[in-house]
Amino acid sequence: QVQLVESGGGLVQAGGSLRLSCTASGRTISTYVVGWFRQTPGKEREFVAAVRWSGGDTYYADYADSVKGRFAISRDNAKNTLYLQMNSLKPEDTAAYYCAADPHYSGSTPHGYSYWGQGTQVTVSE
Prior knowledge:
Radius of gyration: 14 Å
């Protein structure tokens, strides 16, 4: 089993930055697909970004169009931790952000991920 714990959410003004962290325990997730999703009340959980291991030291990152150029996903395997650097934040980025991990799934559908954190709230004010 993998346990995921997010941190780093908060309240920020539009144009500001936040960095979310997601620390895993239970297993090493260096070869897992790990990603970030977000959800607002009454809406489906949506894909934000993911990073996939392709062998050796090579990883590939994917982003939702809505965050490309503003958000950056990264991982520190030594710390078993995933990050999401969020810059140029907009009010529409306001959501609960969840990290997710899976040993095999490589898509962007939330149902494909086996492990989830509890979420951290990000609120962007005007």
